[in-house]
Design a protein that fits this description.
The protein has 437 residues and is α+β, with helices and mostly antiparallel strands. It has 13 helices and 22 strands. Substrate binds at residue 261.
Length: 437
Amino acid sequence: MFMKRYLKLCFCVAYLLAGFCQNVFGQQPLDAAYMSGSEVTCVPETQMQMDTVDQFSDFHCAELDLYAKSAVLTDADTGRILYGKEANSPMANASTTKIMTCLLAIESGKTGDSVTFSEYACSMPKVRLGCSVGTQFLLEDLLYSLMLESHNDTAVAIAEYVAGSVQHFAVQMNERAAELGCLDTHFVTPNGLDKSDEGGAHQTTAYDLSRIMAACIQNDKFLKITQTVSKTISSIDGTFRATLNNHNALLSMMEGVISGKTGFTAKAGYCYVGAYRKEDRTYTFALLACGWPNNKGYKWEDARKLIAYGNEHYVRQLYSADGEKRQIPIRNGVKIEEEDTGRKKYKYTYPEHFVVETETVRQELLLSDTDVITETWNLPKTVEAPVKAGNVIGEHRILLNGCQIVIQPVYVVETMEKFTYRWCLKHIFFLLFLGKI
């Protein structure tokens, strides 16, 4: 009797094993199935990398007649260039540098501290606050001197206090610029005076400068300072007083302008960086080498042209893409499902594909009539089991005019185990001896 049961069990094992093997190894080869009609869109990694190259190159919908040698208008929310003219060409940028000096001083958390003017700070050329060595001010008051009147001695006093020296402060400036993605910027001085060090000349690009401004306008204290029309400050001991007037004339010339900083050196020419916000949009813009004396007003004309261009050509729209499912071929996969029969029972299937999906995308974008949105998928051509639900299997990218604006993971939807002889024997044992049949 025992021998008969043993033989019957062996027969069942052999029969089930043969059935499992036939299901798996009798399939059409997965590569052939994939090549003959899969829904998977595969993008080689090298191509995916190329999609993001020159992401912020100059972009023109129409030529603007600008005085500036370098100019840019960007969407402050995304960093996208809406208009560019030599936007990535490094140039001297004069006192527009001071927006970074102001930002670092605010971020230091020391605005309530007292700052002492050193001999080196007092030696700076005009324009300067003009106090004597040893005079002390609250750092916050000095930020008005820095941004309203563009005092060069004040910039050095701030740098020395925040970082210990001008050189150390320049390191902080460059580190912060790198954090913001400003790849073509090198700062040497806190006031923008032309100077070089071992890293090169003090310079930036119109695009980098606009990105720094985008970070600045996220700071309420920065906005308060740069929107102030006039302010009187005093030294801590009351022996020195100065009335400061804002030289950013665009604040009163054009509704919607929320911040800005002028600049000039003989090398840089007239420069300007500003920000504009109205209703559904925020722009940052920068102008470099925008005329030399006696053409001080060129920068205001160019700034108004850039803003008008953005308002005329771009409309904010909601881009919406529902989560999408795709299939990837799988080798040696087995899917286990519990059947709802009132008694635990399992169903085994051997799919040729498994499902992946992305999340829903909702993003507001400034778009023009000529903008084109495309998608690319970076997925494996085929996968060897096992795969686990929730794991990341690839990338889905959304491109605007070939420039990446969204990158999101692609997730595995369903778990599949790997079919092997060991797996087969394990589950036969499970079915026969634990009664899950």
